């Protein structure tokens, strides 16, 4: 049976949009549907981490995101109702090998708008108001049932990816378990709203306390703030301005904080769950459909974007019939441990913020500065690594980076004298290999020619230093910018590598 599309992406949140952009730029025919009538309005995830910015660089939207976002942090922390810390930190400066050294802050609705605009430039758009209601699959493809305005249609795709959020229909239709826990007693009221009477206006205000927490985070370049305030166990709460005003007064001990009309109000419940499997036949799960946890640590959207970028190139090869057997299985092997790590880290972070250990409470005032520095350093070091994954070959010893790490950036000079950024090479849809020789030359191969390298100059040896490899070493970089292999150029590992991945 012929197919209507190569890939059907279900859900147009940040995960689905990233995947659709990546597939289309790799030349794959892709449809993307979302059941809501139009774009989601809520600010939700603010933290865009460095590795996500590197993905956005490959999609050509990193500059747009950075221009719209805020990179510094101005923070006021309260313990109970007392202010205990006010501090501002400047963003880390980019370096030659790390162009995106720190996280930036942008409401998720704006990040999604930038992704949608990029998708439109690439020639595709989201079909809003279309809900996946059924799916069947056989050896050749997936048949999806889609309801639009009460009318049902079927669509045949070679592959389907469920990026349809925590309540994923795709996951349920595939019968994939989502074990974990839901804590009905851990809830928060969320709002996007103008806040009056809270100074400094440009600061993030964070109230910590025993089993309670509240944050007011201003949007960059707008009068709106995101307000997140925990709800006491057992309390019945209807999302409304009146309730928001009461909760904020209780948390802050102040009655002079006032609100405009919210553009978004929602109640959030704590869920900590990980899908048993990320794949069933020709259908995959990515983003919140595969893992949900607390917003603490800003992992949700970032992990979804990384899922999408890990899967995109593998699906593109599979659609073209060029994926080696087993390549699609490496998606779950690499990304499920990353999902588990995000769950663990956000759960630890939430518990310590909501309930600072009793013995520590008197000294929280003194610990908060170092703690925030540690969190900022953690934010910089956000990338998951695939050191023990099925696609990593580390055959050279004592290298600065390892197979399974994201490849660093750097600048080389082409034979014509042009300067070229490694990130621009990684943006190409295939593998890149860099062979380092004794003469400070780097032989670069990119698709379609994997056999002959072109000599580029690395006059100061900065690229070699960034990788920390000896002369006579070759590094193969995967189409998602991760290092696949580090091996002696003349050894047996290099010729054996690509056949492991490509048919
Ligand atoms: C207060 C708050 C703060 C957060 N802060 C951060 C942060 O700082 N950093 C971070 O990384 N993450 C953060 N998160 C988490 C982040 O918002 C989510 O992880 C992210 O939205 C997941 O993206 P997604 O694309 O996987 O799913 P979603 O954004 O949930 O998108 C799923 C889409 O699928 C559609 N859909 C569902 N079912 C169907 C169907 N049957 N057919 C068609 N379409 C369907 C939905 O309409 C929706 O548009 C935060 C969340 C909250 C609530």
UniProtKB/TrEMBL annotation:
Cofactor(s) required for function per UniProt: FAD
Annotated segments matching region Disordered: 376-413
Boundaries of every FAD-binding domain copy: 4-345
Top-level taxon of origin: Bacteria
Keyword Ubl conjugation: no
UniProt xrefs under NCBIfam families: PRK06184.1
Similarity field: Belongs to the PheA/TfdB FAD monooxygenase family.
Alphabetical list of InterPro entries matching this protein: FAD-bd (IPR002938), FAD/NAD-bd_sf (IPR036188), RIFMO-like (IPR050641), Thioredoxin-like_sf (IPR036249)
Alphabetical keyword list: FAD, Flavoprotein
Signal peptide: none
UniProt organism field: Actinoallomurus oryzae
Pfam families in the cross-refs: FAD_binding_3
Keyword rRNA-binding: no
Protein name: FAD-dependent oxidoreductase
């Amino acid at each position: 049976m012929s197919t209507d599309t190569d890939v059907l992406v279900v859900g147009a949140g940040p995960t689905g949009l990233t995947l659709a952009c990546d597939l289309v730029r790799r030349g794959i025919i892709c449809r993307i549907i979302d059941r809501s009538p139009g774009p989601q309005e809520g600010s939700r995830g603010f933290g865009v981490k460095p590795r996500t910015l590197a993905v956005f660089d490959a999609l050509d939207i990193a500059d747009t995101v950075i221009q719209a976002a805020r990179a510094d942090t101005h923070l006021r922390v309260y313990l109970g109702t007392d202010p205990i810390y006010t501090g501002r930190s400047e963003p880390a400066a980019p370096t030659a090998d790390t162009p995106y050294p720190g996280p930036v802050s942008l409401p998720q609705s704006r990040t999604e708008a930038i992704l949608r605009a990029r998708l439109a430039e690439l020639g595709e758009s989201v079909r809003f108001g279309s809900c996946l209601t059924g799916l069947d699959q056989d050896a050749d493809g997936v048949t999806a049932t889609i309801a639009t305005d009460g009318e049902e249609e079927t669509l045949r795709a070679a592959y389907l990816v469920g990026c349809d959020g925590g309540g994923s229909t795709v996951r349920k239709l595939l019968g994939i378990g989502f074990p974990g826990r839901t804590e009905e007693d851990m809830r928060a009221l969320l709002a996007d709203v103008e806040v009056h009477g809270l100074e400094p206006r440009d600061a993030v205000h964070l109230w910590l306390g025993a089993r309670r927490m509240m944050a007011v985070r201003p949007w960059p370049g707008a009068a709106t703030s995101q307000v997140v305030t925990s709800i006491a166990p057992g309390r019945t709460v209807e999302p409304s301005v009146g309730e928001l005003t009461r909760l904020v007064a209780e948390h802050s001990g102040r009655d002079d904080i006032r609100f405009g009309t919210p553009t978004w109000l929602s109640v959030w419940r704590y869920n900590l769950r990980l899908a048993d499997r990320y794949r069933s036949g020709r259908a995959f799960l990515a983003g919140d459909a595969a893992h949900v946890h607390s917003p603490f640590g800003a992992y949700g959207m970032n992990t979804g974007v990384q899922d999408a970028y890990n899967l995109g190139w593998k699906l593109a090869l599979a659609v073209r019939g060029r994926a080696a057997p087993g390549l699609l299985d490496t998606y779950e092997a690499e990304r499920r441990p990353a999902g588990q790590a995000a769950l663990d880290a956000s759960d630890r972070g939430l518990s310590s913020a909501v309930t600072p250990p009793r013995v520590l409470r008197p000294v929280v005032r003194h610990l908060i500065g170092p703690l925030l520095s540690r969190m900022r350093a953690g934010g910089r070091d956000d990338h998951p690594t695939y050191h023990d994954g099925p696609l990593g070959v580390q055959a050279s010893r004592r290298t600065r980076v390892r197979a399974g790490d994201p490849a660093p950036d750097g600048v080389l000079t082409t034979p014509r004298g042009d300067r070229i950024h490694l990130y621009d090479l990684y943006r190409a849809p295939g593998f890149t290999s860099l062979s380092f020789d004794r003469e400070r030359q780097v032989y670069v191969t990119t698709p379609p020619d994997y056999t002959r390298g072109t000599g580029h100059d690395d006059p100061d040896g900065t690229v070699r230093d960034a990788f920390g490899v000896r002369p006579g070493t070759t590094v193969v970089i995967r189409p998602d910018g991760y290092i696949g292999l580090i091996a002696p150029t003349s050894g047996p590992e290099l010729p054996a590598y690509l056949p492991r991945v490509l048919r």
